[in-house]
Design a protein that fits this description.
This protein starts with a helix and ends with a helix. The longest helix is centred in the C-terminal third of the chain and has 20 residues. About 50% of the residues lie in helices and about 15% in strands. It is built from 7 helices and 4 strands, in the order ααβαβαβαβαα. It has about 180 residues and is of the alpha/beta class.
């Protein structure tokens, strides 16, 4: 359930429709995932959490009509390695979108900052360099409890959100090219 702050920050209903006729085109990524080929790069580190994110991502792809036969899952050792897996998916043309799933939980050392930052930067670089939507479904939390809360089954699962975002970006980019 959305908090009051989340609701206050959300795009108001009807705003996009209100632009119709005011600009040449209003582009968005609406539409299902039928025919979309998805690669999922999932970290084995913090595996109980990433497994839950993977289940959420698969549920999200199912909701959008992406066929399970069009989904490939690759397991990386940790979040730091996800950008390389994403790059491999994106450059070989076998997928239309990539969803990266991981969990980086703050510990007592600076390891968290390096891994989380480099993972995010690498994933962003892959999508900018290849033009393939690469979704950041990597949790960066202070505690295991926070990570478990963000990976619970249901609409707030961050793996599900990442899958939805990747399909939406694919549809948006396709509409821009038309």
């Amino acid at each position: 359930m959305a908090t009051d702050e989340q609701q206050a920050a959300a795009l108001p209903a009807g705003v996009l429709e209100s632009l119709e006729g005011q600009v040449g085109a209003v582009l968005h990524g609406d539409g299902g995932g039928s025919g979309v080929r998805a690669g999922i790069a999932c970290s084995r580190f913090n595996g109980n959490i990433t497994w839950r994110l993977l289940e959420g991502a698969l549920a999200g792809l199912d909701e959008l009509g992406v066929a399970r036969s069009d989904v490939k899952v690759a397991w990386a050792p940790g979040a730091f390695e996800l950008p390389l897996v994403a790059r491999s998916f994106a450059t070989h043309g076998a997928v239309d979108i990539v969803v990266c799933l991981g969990a980086v939980i703050r510990g007592e050392t600076g390891h968290y900052d390096v891994v989380a930052g480099e993972c995010a930067a690498g994933i962003q670089r892959v999508q900018l360099d290849t033009g393939v939507p690469v979704a950041f479904g990597v949790l960066t939390t202070d505690t295991v409890e926070q990570a478990l809360a963000r990976s619970e089954p249901g609409p707030a699962n961050k793996g599900r959100e990442a899958a939805h975002g990747a399909v939406e970006m694919y549809r948006l980019l396709r509409s821009v090219m038309i």
